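Hi again,

Forgot to attach this to my earlier email, sorry! This is the prediction with BJW bound. I've pasted everything inline since the attachment limit keeps bouncing my files.
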Amino acid sequence: METLTLSEEIRERVREARSLVAFSGAGVSRESGLDTFRGAGGLWEKMRPEELATPQAFRADPEKVWRWYAWRFRQAAEAAPNPAHLALARLELEEVFPSFTLVTQNVDGLHRRAGSRNVLELHGTILRAHCNRCGQSRDMGEAIAESSEEPPVCSCGGKYRPSVVWFGEALPDDVFAQAAEESASADLFLSVGTSSTVYPAAGLIEVAKRAGALFVEVNPEPTPFSRLADLRLAAPAGEAVPALVDALSRHR
Ligand code: BJW
Ligand code: ZN
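Structure tokens for the complex follow:
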């Protein structure tokens, strides 16, 4: 993407902004080679979500669900952050805005590996697993490597499961509360690579918009929130986010 030119009105808002929230979804990791959930080529074109990403699915067929996550863990471990992850990290590390929070729905750990620090993982992480009975937590890679059982069995007799949030499960309370608080006080709210269809995460866009944030959406496809966007970049994140970060930095 060539140099991005911002309108005078947006430049003004950027100049005055104190806090930025970046909100990301599976699309930001697409150019790292990880599949999105919905849409063409998405994980759920081949598999129904309720067969894999629910507590009921794990109860019904723990081996199938565990294997699917073990496969995705290996994919994530082998993937590298792309220019979109790196540009978002730069925004934080170069302190372009006094306050920066990265709220992600992703479980792949790529934002932290790119150098982002203030990361709120709304849907947990695939890098850890915990026992469904006693809650004991361990590294996912070790759980896969050290056990021949799928899923590995805990010393209490329970089964290990990935530490992600499935449909019907509550998001970690403190993490969501902090994300909502940051969204409510954000001057800029930047949504990247999410279909914005899963709640309560998608509701953060409404929270920010209602509180008066400038809302920027990066997604090649429209979402239910596109109409509310003050600026929409219909391009892949790996191209649009570095261009946007350059433009934001230039106008500070
Ligand atoms: C690119 C790109 C490129 C492509 N560059 N972009 C009605 C109203 C409100 C809520 C509900 C409702 N009915 C049911 C609910 C509840 C349910 C829900 O929201 N369902 C909806 C589907 C309707 N929500 C829940 O169950 C949540 N829990 C809850 O509500 O608890 C209540 C409770 C309270 C108290 C006690 C008990 C319960 C939990 C939701 C958990 C979601 N979990 C998953 C799986 C995580 C584990 C895993 O990874 O397997 O999270 S589902 C999946 O969707 C995953 C994602 O984080 C999430 C969001 O998806 P995302 O990231 O937006 O990806 P995609 O694939 O949808 O979109 C990718 C986008 O990228 C697309 O738009 C592309 O165009 C774009 N793209 N290439 C930029 N290169
Ligand atoms: Zn246990």
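The CA atoms of residues 50 and 57 lie 7 Å apart. Residues 25-27, 30-31, 36-39, 42, 53, 105, 107, 123, 164-170, 193-195, 197-200, 218-221, 223, 236-237 surround BJW (ligand 1) (CB under 6 Å).

That should be everything now.

G.
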